[in-house]
Amino acid sequence: MILDVDGGDILFDCDGLGAIADQRREALRAKIRDLPTETLMKTNECELASSLADKYNLAVPRLSGDTPSISSERGDVYFADETQFGGVGSTEGTVFWIASEFEGDGSLFQARPEGVPQPQCRGLVRGNSVLLRVAVDDLKGVDLKPVIGQMLDDIRSNLEQLCREKEEIRKNLELHAIEAIQERKSHQADIKRVVESLGFTAREPSEIWALLQSEFGNVKGRRLLLDETNGRSPELVQEDYSEILRVIRRMTLVMERSPAAFRRLKEEHLRDLYLVFLNGMYDGGATGETFNCNGKTDILVRDGGLNIFIAECKIWRGEKKYVDTVDQIMRYLTVRDGKAAIIVFNRNERFSEVCKKIGNASKMHPLHKSSIREDEDEFQYLFIHKDDPGREILMTVMIFNVPS
Fold it and tell me: Which residues of the chain have pLDDT under 50?
C-alpha cells in the first residue's frame, strides 16, 4: 500500500511570533498615543494596560473539540521513485480530505514555534478550517485513524507551544502598555505646564484630521435610500453605494498626496479614518470590527438594523493574503448582504504590479462570476454568495498607494 500525506502547504514554516508581536506592540503604542487626553488621565493605568494587552494579544488557533469531517475523491497518490535519485512517481487512488475547524487567527498556522527546527505538518488553511490530505492507492485493510490522529496531534503540539509563547507576549504587551501610558501622561503634564505658562487654551492636535477636514469640510448626516422593489430584501441603491465609494476614494487620495502623515498608521487606524466621515454622513450607522455572520468586519454601515455596506481594509502583503481577504469578507456576508468592498493599501511594491496581481487573483477566485469594470486601480466584480449560488455580491476592489 502507498500512503501519501504530503499534500498541502508546510505549516509552521515562517517567522516566529516575535515579528508579529513587534507589530502588535507598535499598534498598541499608537493606540495609546491616539487616546483622548481626558480618557487617558482618568483611567486606571493597570486596568487600561491589561485591557489593551488583551486586545492586541495574538489569537493563536485552537482546534475544535468536535470530530473532524471527512470527504473522499479519486485522485493521484504520489510516492518517491526509489529507482531514481530525486525522482517521484504517482498512481491513481483515493484522496481523503479531513477538515478540522478551529478558533483564532488562521494566519498563525504559518508561525514557527520556538525549538521546532524543521516543521513536518502539512495542510491547507481555508476559512476557519484546516484541511489535511491523505491519499492511498489501495483501500483493502487500510487503517487511517492512527495516521490522521498523528497529523492532528502534531498540529496541536505546535499550537500548544505557540500558546505558551503567546502568554509571555501578553505579559510583555502589558508592560509596554504601562510604559507607554506613563510616557504619554508625563508628556501631557509637560504640555499642560507649558500651555499654562503661556496662558493659551489647550486643544487636541490632529494633523490627519486637519488634512481630511480641509479636503471635505463639514459633512451633513443623510438618510440612506433603500430599494424594496421586486419583493427583494432592502438593499442600498447604487447611488448610495457609489457615494460611499466616492468618499473612500477621495479620503484615500488625501493619504496618497500626504504620505508622511499616514505612513505609520496600521490597518485599524486607517479604517478608523473612514469611520469618522461615514458616521457623519450616515447618522452614526458606520461601525468597525463589528460581528456579522462568521466574523468581525472592518467597516459595516447599517440603516434601520439592515446591513447595507461591508468593507475590509488591508495592507498589501501578497496574492495569498489578498485571496484570504476575499475569503474573509465572503464569510462575513449573509444572504441579505448584496454590496461590499475591499480597500487595499500598497506601501512597498510597484503599484502597477500590485494592481495586476489583484486583478488576476480576483478573476481566479472560485466565487467570481463576472467582471463589471476594470480600471487602472479600481475593479468591480460580481461574486456569487458562498451559501446561495443564486445570490450575487457586487464587490468593488480599490487599490491605493500609501508608501511607508
Answer: 205, 218-221, 223-236, 284-285, 287-296
Q: What are the φ/ψ torsions at residue 204 (nearest 5 degrees)? A: -70, 120
157 grid coordinates: 503540539
CA of residue 321 relative to chain centroid, distance: 8
φ/ψ of residue 302, rounded to 5: -120, 150
Q: How many CA atoms lie within 13 A of 208 on its CB side?
A: 20
Q: How far apart are CA 3 and CA 213, in angstroms?
A: 64
Taking the CA atoms of 296, 348, 272 and 310 in sequence, report the sign of the dihedral they define.
negative
Q: CA 241, CA 398: separation in Å to the nearest integer? A: 14
Contact criterion met (CB below 8 Å) for 332 and 310? yes
d(CA 325, CA 170): 26
How far is it, in rounded angstroms, from Cα 322 to Cα 357? Answer: 9
User: Do 150 and 114 meet the contact criterion of CB atoms below 8 Å apart?
Assistant: no
Ordered alpha helix ranges (H), 199-237: 207-216
pTM, 2 dp = 0.47
CA 208, CA 90: separation in Å to the nearest integer? 59
Distance in angstroms (rounded) separating the CA atoms of residues 388 and 330 = 12
> Cβ distance 293 to 334 under 8 Å?
yes
CA torsion sign for 108, 10, 318, 299 is negative
Residues 6+ apart with CB under 8 A from 85: none
Pairwise CA distance, residues 53 & 49, whole Å: 6
Nearest-angstrom CA–CA distance, 378 and 400:
9
Give 126-158 as a DSSP string.
ETTEEEEEEEES--TT---HHHHHHHHHHHHHH
CA angle 213, 218, 219 (to 5 degrees): 115
Using CB atoms within 10 Å of the CB of residue 21, give its burial: 0 to 12 exposed, 13 to 18 middle, 19+ buried: buried
Amino acid at position 335, single letter: V
Backbone angles phi, psi at 319, to 5 degrees: -60, -40
Q: What is the pLDDT of residues 191-242, one digit of tens each?
A: 677 667 766 655 554 555 555 555 555 444 454 444 444 433 444 456 777 8
The amino acid occupying position 357 is: K
